[in-house]
Amino acid sequence: MKLTVLGCSGSVPGPDSPASSYLVSAAGFNLVLDLGSGALGALQRYLSVPEIGAIGLSHLHPDHCMDLCGLYVAAKYSPSSPFPRIPVFGPPGTAGRMALAYDLPEDPGMEEELEFHTWQEIQQIGPFTVRTTPMVHPVPAYAIRVEYGNKSLAYSGDTGPNDGLIELARGADLLLCEAALRDDDPNNPPDLHMTPADAGEHAKRAGVKRLVITHVPPWFNRDTQGQGARRTYSGDVQVAAPDMTFDI
C-alpha cells in the first residue's frame, strides 16, 4: 500500500495544508480516507475524479467531509460525466447530512452521483479489507483500519483516548493518529481529541511499527507535537505534512 497525505491540518484548513484527507492506493485502486475542507483540490494533483475508487469518512465534521460537496459538483457537471457512482462509506445518516450541506432535497440528494454506505465492522472495498470501530467524539466517529495482503494501516480519525483504537490498531504497520491538543494543558476538554503523549501511548500499547502524527491545528507547531509523541513511544515517529508519502 501507498499512503499519500493530501491534507493534515486539524480542525480547520491551515495556510499550508487542507484539512484531513489521505489517499491509500494498492493494486490500481484508490481509497480516499476523509475529504475535509480544501482537500479536493489537493486530491486532483494525484487523481482525476473518475479515478477515485471509494471514499471513507471517519465522521461528519466539516474538516473531514465538507469537500464532498465539491466532489458532487464535479461528478454532476464535469464534461466527462456521467461516470459510475463513487462509493462513499460513512456514519449513519451520511447521505442526508451531505444533502443538507449542499441544500439539496434529501431525495435524491447526492445519490445519483455518489453511492452511500454505512460503515460495518468489516467490509471489502476494492482490494482492501476495511475494519472500523467507534471512537470517542461529540458525534458518531470511527477509526478505520485498512488491510491489504499482510500489511495494515490504522487511522484514528478524531477521538479522545480510548481502548477501542488500541485494539483496532493492534500490530499495524502504520498508525496515523491525531494529536490536536497540547500535552499538559489543564484546559484540554475531555473526550474530544488526543495529545501527542496520548497518541504515543496508544501506539506503544497497540504495538504498531510506525506512528505518524496528524490533525495538528495551524495554531500549534507540528514538530512540537511530534516531539511530544516521542516521549511515550520509542518507535519511529513522523509528523504528517502535505504530499508526504509512506510505503506500507
From TrEMBL:
Alphabetized SMART domains for the sequence: Lactamase_B
Cross-referenced SUPFAM superfamilies: Metallo-hydrolase/oxidoreductase
The protein's name in its UniProt record: MBL fold metallo-hydrolase
Residue span, Metallo-beta-lactamase domain: 18-215
Organism, as annotated: Kribbella sancticallisti
UniProt xrefs under InterPro entries: Metallo-B-lactamas, RibonucZ/Hydroxyglut_hydro
